[in-house]
Specification:
heterodimer; A: 2 domains; 6-stranded mixed beta sheet; about 40% helix; elongated; B: mainly alpha; 11 helices; about 70% helix
Chain lengths: ~425, ~280
């Protein structure tokens, strides 16, 4: 490659790193036509074009930016190691702006103008539903969805690399019931599809284990006052709150629950999407004892995961966007690596059918929280799941991992 | 009995939050005829001031004290530079203040990186009375709200400044002819309303969390309160806020929560339809 190309590649990269801080702040990505991150060298067959469609701006920008940073990190690792069979990966970013209406147009650009070979991204279920058709059906392109979600997504050419309800509940709920001895559950929830379907599954597991769901209730996403709910929790003698309320409604709920003395009197608060990022949304004392179940925690004692964190911290020093499980970051890393494995298996062929066929049984030996393996024919991955409990000490919070389940089956499709 | 006390406390606590937010909005709407759509963002600025003070290690109390001063000054500058051009055109004023609010909100969103920040209560924990636990900060908010209502009412009804403000509201021409500087009064009134918004933001942020949308959450209900109570009086918006706050906190006890929010609007709009002037139509301040 020529010297001018080299300098351009580097300066773009530097520009992007700098711009990352600004886009992170939600200031400039809105009026750009997407980003390209070029590899540092060329290959006769041209680069592999990987499209990232994630929420750089809008309400869930913190998660989207974490996703984009993890994608850059994973792709840089692959490119530094010589690419996929010598072919480098070129990253294309489009902002889905936390808004499905905007996203559809931007995702079409990835497909029609940039002609990417694969799209990774989408965080909320509403986003996945909105962009899967332009990608998979009309766009005839492979789609990898990285977030933990409510399950039941069995579209051909759409691969899910985050945990399913079975993976989050099958181990956690029996643990809460048998080890901690809690039997009476409350399910306060935000009113949208993920809590509804997750609760449906969790209820089955609770009842199969001889527990009882005292109430299941849905709130507007920004509800500010929960005294009625707290009273039901007290009157119903609930001993475990299985929470799927999300911010901004979550903080007042958790505060009122804490003030009511629920945890002090032995109650357990469980929140299966809570990662290290989200702990900071609350005063430390209110998080004490919170139980979460995810595919990775930073406290997981695994040499490869530790190296990953160090590499990420080196690439993005002092970043506001942590490499965690709750914001689809681990799923994003896995998605990029699964794709790498699949393309290796096809011998460098990038056709959708060939790659999907290889992706169907791809295996990762290592990853955040350990390896993962696609379950052939089921579009979901087996992965290790961890149960962690939050400890607060001197105003700081951390997760202690208390249980690990190896290669849990997603039980989807 | 225990239940009744606890229920009353919870309703009162949320109603106080609502009243605090509406107070500044009501003062500006009633005394100046301006519907300030940037009010939510003035609340946000109050909350953000507490966050900054906390961040720089000055402690949360200094933030609570600084917030009304800082936001009051911001209000003064806004009035002198922008709002004063809107007095003749109240409809444009809504759009203009909305634009100001949008600018403030998006700047703060950028500064926060889109994250939520938790702000600790200056005094956390709870106290026991008669075998029941009450949150200290919620109690503090209730007491402060009552003090602020009483103080504002005394200021407007019992002092000469209040008299001049009311005079300027009643008949600006005549007030000017009497040697009252209405321009200065309006600036002071707007700054006062902004300071109340700042105080509200500082007091409520430990109950929720700091995010760019903290003000927006309450703005629509605050406007509903002003409509319900009626513009042009001090007591009207306060009573409106009491009604909306009590309904918003009380309805989830009797209907499913997703229905409670729309129901507040339905009831309030029905009342407004029956009493377009608001609760208070006689005995203006």
């Amino acid at each position: 490659m020529s010297e001018t190309d080299r300098t351009r590649g580097i300066s773009r990269r530097h520009f992007l790193n700098g711009a990352g801080a600004l886009t992170a702040a939600g200031w400039i990505a809105g009026f750009t036509g997407g980003w390209v991150l070029r590899p540092r060298w060329a290959h006769a067959a041209g680069p592999i074009k990987m499209g990232i469609a994630t929420d750089i701006t809008g309400a869930i920008a913190p998660s989207g930016n974490a996703n984009w940073q993890v994608a850059q990190f994973a792709v840089e690792q692959i490119n530094t190691a010589g690419g996929i069979l010598g072919q480098p990966i070129e990253l294309h970013l489009e902002d889905t702006a936390s808004d499905p209406k905007i996203a559809v147009g931007n995702v079409r650009k990835l497909i029609q103008e940039r002609k990417v070979d694969v799209v990774l991204g989408g965080i909320t279920s509403a986003m996945r539903q909105a962009i899967k058709d332009p990608i998979v059906n009309r766009g005839r392109t492979l789609y990898i969805y990285p977030q933990l979600y409510e399950g039941q997504e069995c579209t051909k050419f759409l691969f899910n690399t985050g945990p399913s309800p079975a993976q989050q509940c099958d181990r956690l709920i029996p643990y809460i019931m048998k080890t901690l001895g809690k039997k009476r559950f409350a399910m306060p929830s935000a009113n949208y599809v993920w809590p509804q379907l997750l609760n449906k599954y969790a209820r089955k597991v609770i009842e199969a284990n001889g527990g009882e769901v005292v109430f299941e209730e849905y709130y507007p996403l920004d509800q500010a006052e929960y005294s009625a709910t707290i009273s039901k929790i007290k009157d119903g003698k609930v001993d475990c709150v299985f929470n799927t309320v999300i911010p901004p409604g979550l903080q007042p709920f958790v505060k009122q629950l804490y003030e009511s003395g629920f945890q002090k009197n032995g109650g357990v608060l469980s929140c299966v999407y809570y990662d290290e990022n989200l702990l900071n949304y609350h005063p430390a004392a209110e998080m004490e004892g919170l139980i979460s179940c995810l595919d990775y925690f930073q406290a997981v004692d695994d040499p490869f995961s530790k190296t990953l964190q160090q590499g990420y911290a080196k690439k993005f020093p002092d970043t506001k966007y942590l490499f965690t499980a709750g914001s689809a970051s681990t799923g994003m890393y896995r998605g990029v690596k699964f794709y790498e494995e699949a393309v290796k298996a096809t011998g460098g062929k990038l056709g959708r059918e060939e790659v999907a066929a290889a992706l169907d049984h791809a295996v990762l030996k290592e990853g955040p929280g350990g390896g993962a393996a696609m379950v052939p024919g089921h579009y979901h991955a087996k992965m290790n799941m961890y149960i962690a409990v939050c400890k607060s000490e001197g105003g700081k919070t951390r997760y202690d991992v208390i249980d690990k389940a190896d290669m849990v089956d997603p039980r989807e499709c | 009995m225990d239940f009744a006390i606890k229920f009353a406390f919870d309703i009162l606590a949320f109603t106080s939050v609502m009243v605090l937010i509406v107070l500044g909005l009501g003062v500006i709407a009633s005394m100046m005829g301006i519907f300030n759509f940037a009010h939510g963002e003035l609340v946000l600025l109050g909350a953000y001031t507490v966050y900054l003070c906390d961040e720089y290690g000055l402690g949360a109390w200094s933030g609570v004290i600084a917030a009304p001063i800082v936001v009051g000054l911001v209000g003064l500058v806004l009035e002198r530079t922008i709002i004063k051009r809107f007095y003749a055109v109240p409809i444009i004023a809504m759009l203009g203040t909305y634009a100001i609010g949008l600018v403030i909100r998006e700047i703060v969103r950028g500064l926060l990186g889109g994250h939520y920040k938790s702000i600790p209560e200056p005094i956390s924990g709870s106290f026991s009375a008669g075998g029941l636990d009450f949150s200290i900060w919620r109690s503090f908010v209730i007491v402060t709200t009552m003090v602020v209502i009483a103080g504002s009412w005394l200021l407007l009804s019992r002092t000469s400044v209040g008299l001049r403000v009311r005079g300027a509201l009643e008949n600006p021409m005549l007030a000017r002819a009497c040697g009252i500087s209405t321009a200065r009064l309006y600036a002071l009134t707007f700054a006062f309303g902004a300071a109340l918004a700042g105080l509200a933001g500082a007091l409520i942020v430990p109950l929720y969390q700091l995010s760019a949308d903290i003000g927006i959450r309450f703005l629509v209900q605050a406007f509903l309160s002003v409509m319900l109570g009626g513009v042009g009086t001090f007591e009207g918006p306060v009573l409106g806020a009491v009604a909306v706050g009590a309904m918003a906190a009380g309805l989830p006890w009797v209907v499913i929560p997703v229905l409670a929010d729309p129901l507040v609007f339905v009831i309030a709009l029905a009342v407004v339809r029956l009493r377009p002037q608001g609760f208070i139509t006689v005995g203006r301040l």
